[in-house]
UniProtKB/TrEMBL annotation:
Species: Sesamum radiatum (Black benniseed)
One Gene Ontology biological process: ceramide catabolic process
Pfam families: Ceramidase_alk, Ceramidse_alk_C
Protein's name according to its UniProt entry: Neutral ceramidase
GO molecular function, one term: N-acylsphingosine amidohydrolase activity
Length: 702
């Protein structure tokens, strides 16, 4: 099944704007490839990448997930690729397999050196780096950083947003790449002549790796045909509305050093008393389970997500419209793998000179199990715990008892899980990590495989910038922008400063390789930066393991779907009441008899669709899986039941609705200008499709 992201190649100018920055002019054009594709996984039964909660399983779709690819190349020169995933983080295994398929198709054009795959950290919800979009959730740890260092910054989270604007010399703006702390789906796919939906269920057959590589190698790459006049059979809102004479706009909102940043900007409060949580431990009466952060739309988390997303979007639009500094210069990159379980790190010594310290095999501290105010843990764990307790040590020892050397190396972290020394059925934590620098003119991207805290990221950026602008180097001068792309190429938990690590909040307890982890990153990135400006190559380093054949899945396949006698898939189970009236913000809900959505991922399609009637018989799509106001919720009456329901919820916006029949959701709608401005501003008939086509996803379709 073809899964390639469609790419368009454009001669293009890149404009960059950092808030409050200045612009420079350049006539250099780059070649740009932009693409987007649906990567939404199973919408049922699969445990979500979130807060280690076994009850947090998929049960529908709020937004479809996408991969957005950006390629920047010098004509006849080097190129770099950045892929932004609507996923919690990049996976080492996914990165390995993507690179294998790229090699099968393109040879050595795309390798681990010039390809970066980064996640948006969607499990935590949108967070940001704007004045009103993010707060530091571990301020007690931040305050342990030196006062002189803290005095250089006005805030305890970064407030800069860097936006890269892609401008075609013929079509104008065609995309943007935004480095901040959140994620918004704001793009349209570039799919040309494919069916409305493609089943992506591929049987897991053993020993087919070689055959899959051969299959990937048979795919033809883009022939460079014109990107205008796209046709699409996808019955999607954005497919119907996109202009046919220009390429679709692709935008990415990327994560940076947001390890200690939370979108719960109102603060953390106790559920029982309503009072603020304990400052140092984020507890309520000694218990962490009652301490929760509040977003700007509290108590509605959907509304908080919308508000935070809109704030980031508005700032991005402001920067996009004001961008004036043109990127100018070389495309370049450096990459290496480093074993962080036993890295010798040279650090400065007080009074002069240096010391050599070591990183440690990975380990998780007791405070890791306490969670954060964005998602508290359970039992009697708490943040800021630098001692642990006897009971949980006994439980830990049933899995693995850390030795003296490991305890000393990780000090003051009390080890709860000695993951770096746990090897069955395979390694519990990575040890070999990728570090990477991508250069696009005066923009330098540091690809890091984890979540750096605010101050940790500042130290890394400053260290790299110092190397790139020091000595006799004339590559950059003072005009350089260094940004961090977090959660890239693989994932290795958190990275705090040495001082924050001593406090053992959640982030410090989740800093796997000990108190000198950040110093190790700074050392290795300085090496890459020096090689970048000197033109020297770097060793590839030890290769990470390919664990595909060792993966374990406890999820059973869909065995059978059924409906009651006389009922068909897609029939209405619960309709809206007749003659109902809905005002703006109301929830219009209909329940249908469904099959399990794991039968078909509906790739590039939609489970839910609202259509609007224009004229007498022309139905236009109005809302689908990519709209915030539309929700597809799947459920079954019991875990092993063969019957299931699809609940479709539509939160109305700027609409006045009158339900005048009981068939589906046939409603009379008065459209107010601004919400559906492309449609006729007159009373029209809005009809909610009977969903027979997406909900007939039975076993036979696979």
């Amino acid at each position: 099944m073809r899964r390639s992201i469609r790419i368009i190649w454009l001669p293009i100018l890149l404009l960059l704007l950092v808030e409050n920055g200045r612009g420079v002019k350049s006539a250099l054009n780059y070649l740009i490839g932009l693409g987007s594709y649906d990567i939404t996984g199973p919408a049922a039964d699969v445990n979500m990448m979130g807060y280690a909660n076994m009850d947090q399983t998929a049960s529908g779709v709020h937004f479809r997930l996408r991969a957005r690819a950006f390629i920047v190349a010098e004509p006849q020169g080097k190129r770099v690729v950045f892929v932004n995933l609507d996923a919690c983080m990049a996976s080492q295994l996914v990165t390995i397999k993507v690179l294998e398929r790229l090699k099968a198709r393109y040879g050595d054009l795309y390798t681990e050196n010039n390809v970066a795959i980064s996640g948006i950290h969607t499990h935590a919800g949108p967070g940001g780096e704007l004045l009103d979009a993010g707060v530091n959730r571990s301020p007690s740890a931040y305050l342990n950083n030196p006062a002189a260092e803290r005095s250089k910054y006005q805030y305890d989270v970064d407030k800069d947003m860097t936006l890269l604007k892609f401008v075609d010399d013929e079509w104008g703006p065609v995309g943007s790449f935004n480095c901040n702390g959140g994620s918004i789906s704001t793009d349209v796919s570039k799919i040309n002549k494919i069916p409305r939906r493609i089943s992506s269920i591929i049987p897991l057959v053993k020993d087919t790796h070689h055959e899959l590589l051969e299959l990937a190698a048979t795919f033809d790459s883009s022939s460079g045909k014109s990107t205008i006049k796209f046709t699409s059979l996808a019955k999607r809102v954005r497919s119907a509305l996109r202009q046919s004479d220009t390429p679709a706009f692709v935008s990415a909102f990327c994560q940076t050093n947001c390890g200690d940043v939370s979108p719960n900007v109102l603060g953390a409060f106790c559920l029982d008393t309503g009072l603020p949580c304990d400052f140092n431990h984020s507890t309520c009466g000694g218990k962490n389970e009652l301490c929760y952060g509040r977003g700007p739309g509290y108590p509605d988390e959907f509304e908080s997500t919308r508000i935070i997303g809109e704030r980031q979007f508005r700032k991005a639009v402001e920067l996009f419209n004001a961008a004036s500094e043109k990127l100018n210069g070389k495309i370049n990159y450096r990459h290496t793998f480093v074993d962080f379980s036993k890295l010798n790190v040279t650090i400065p010594k007080e009074g002069g000179g240096t010391n050599v310290v070591k990183t440690c095999p990975a380990a998780m501290g007791f405070a890791f199990a306490a969670g954060t105010t964005d998602g508290p843990g359970a039992f009697d764990f708490k943040q800021g715990d630098d001692s642990g307790n006897a009971f949980w040590r006994l439980v830990r020892n049933l899995l693995k008892t850390p030795g003296k050397e490991q305890n000393d190396c990780q000090h003051p972290k009390p080890i709860l899980l000695d993951t770096g020394e746990m090897k069955q059925p395979y390694d519990w934590a990575p040890s070999i990590l990728p570090v990477q620098i991508l250069r696009i003119g005066q923009l330098v991207i540091l690809s890091v495989p984890g979540e750096f805290t605010t101050m940790a990221g500042r130290r890394l950026r400053d260290a790299v910038k110092t190397v790139l602008t020091s000595g006799d180097s004339k590559e950059f001068g003072s005009n350089i922008h260094v940004v961090i792309a977090g959660l890239t190429n693989t994932y290795s938990q958190y990275v705090t400063t040495f001082e924050e690590y001593q406090i053992q909040r959640y982030e410090g307890a989740s800093t796997l390789y000990g108190p000198h982890t950040l110093s190790g990153y700074i050392q290795e990135f300085k090496k890459l930066a020096a090689a970048l400006i000197s033109g020297q190559s770097v060793e590839s380093g030890p290769q990470p393991p390919d664990l595909l054949n060792k993966q374990i899945s406890l999820l059973t396949p869909v065995v059978m779907d059924a409906t009651p006698r006389g009922v068909n898939f897609g029939d209405i189970s619960l309709d809206v009441p007749k003659n109902s009236t809905f005002k703006r913000g109301d929830n219009v809900t209909v329940v249908f008899w469904s099959a399990c959505p794991r039968n078909d991922l509906m790739t590039e399609g939609t489970f839910a669709l609202v259509e609007i009637l224009k004229g007498k018989d022309s139905w236009l799509p109005a809302y689908d899986d990519d709209d915030f106001c539309l929700r597809f919720i799947w459920s079954r009456p019991a875990k092993l039941s063969t019957r299931s329901h699809a609940t479709i919820q539509w939160i109305t916006h700027k609409l006045l609705l009158q339900v005048h029949t009981g068939l589906g959701i046939s409603v009379l709608q008065r459209v107010f200008w601004g919400q559906l401005s492309i449609l006729q501003v007159l009373p029209v008939l809005l009809w909610w499709h009977d969903f027979s086509f997406p909900l007939l996803a039975t076993k036979d379709i696979v």
